[in-house]
Specification:
Blueprint (H helix, E strand, L loop, with lengths): L2 H22 L4 H16 L3 E4 L10 E2 L2 E5 L3 E3 L5 E3 L6 E6 L9 E2 L18 E6 L7 E6 L3 E5 L4 E6 L9 E10 L2 E10 L14 E6 L4 E6 L3 E4 L1 E2 L7
């Protein structure tokens, strides 16, 4: 066997291995299309609401009872209203009205090296409040950056997930769909690099789908991240 043949075999082997790994972590394209299509409707009817995190927004503004805010990066404007600034911050919090602390800490420090003029690190986080399936009059908070996802409910149930396997460049985006499985309602949250949304139709984008069953306080993940855990009560520190 000559050198060229050996090299060709090696290249083919690497290609097959890479393709196999990509397929193993790929969400079926039909599932992705369904989640994305429904998510648009859920945003329109406010089952899911985006919370804007950018300079100039009113600080501590509540959306369905939730305030999502940074530990710093705030000042009063000329009208005397407290607004967010273009400075970086170390931490972010999601707080539901009249729910006593402690609050889970969402770490922003790793995002500082990705911030740039007009886009402080906290603006690289995507934040939403979404309607619960088991209690439609209540909403829960979801935060996601290139590094981490956090879910937090009014009754202090918490979940963190490492998003680094998705190789998100700057910011993620999320899509939400609602459904029912054997009588148990769930919410699916699709997370993907916002720069790769245009390529979702190819089926070759690194994605994860979190399936959240709040009636049972359980969550599972499929795709490039796999996980299955109960949500735990926040008592001041992470349990896992």
């Amino acid at each position: 066997m000559n050198q060229k043949t050996i090299m060709l075999i090696s290249v083919v082997a690497i290609y097959v291995l890479t393709s196999t790994l990509l397929m193993a972590g790929t969400i079926p394209i039909e599932d992705i299309k369904a989640i994305v299509a429904e998510s648009s409707e859920n945003m329109k009817n406010e089952k899911v609401i985006r919370v804007l995190l950018q300079p100039g927004e009113v600080a501590f503004k509540r959306t369905k009872g939730w305030a999502i805010f940074t530990s710093t990066a705030m000042k009063k404007n000329v009208e005397g209203v407290l607004v967010t600034t273009d400075e970086n911050a170390d931490m972010m919090f999601a707080e539901y009205e009249k729910v006593r602390p402690p609050l889970p800490t969402y770490n922003l420090k790793p995002l500082k090296k990705y911030a740039y003029v007009g886009k402080p690190n906290y603006a690289l986080v995507k934040a939403y409040v979404a309607q619960r399936t088991d209690k439609p009059d209540e909403y829960f908070a979801v935060l996601a950056s290139r590094n981490e996802l956090m879910i937090y409910t009014k009754d202090k149930r918490t979940y963190f997930a490492n998003l680094e396997p998705l190789d998100i460049k700057l910011s993620p985006t999320m899509f939400f769909s609602y459904g029912e499985d054997k009588g148990i309602p769930y919410i699916k949250i699709l997370v993907v690099d916002e720069d790769e949304v245009k390529n979702l139709h190819t089926g070759n984008v690194k994605t994860v789908v979190f399936k959240l069953c709040l009636s049972e306080m359980k969550i599972s993940a499929t795709g490039f991240i796999t996980d299955e855990k109960p949500l735990y009560e926040w008592k001041g520190k992470r349990e896992y």
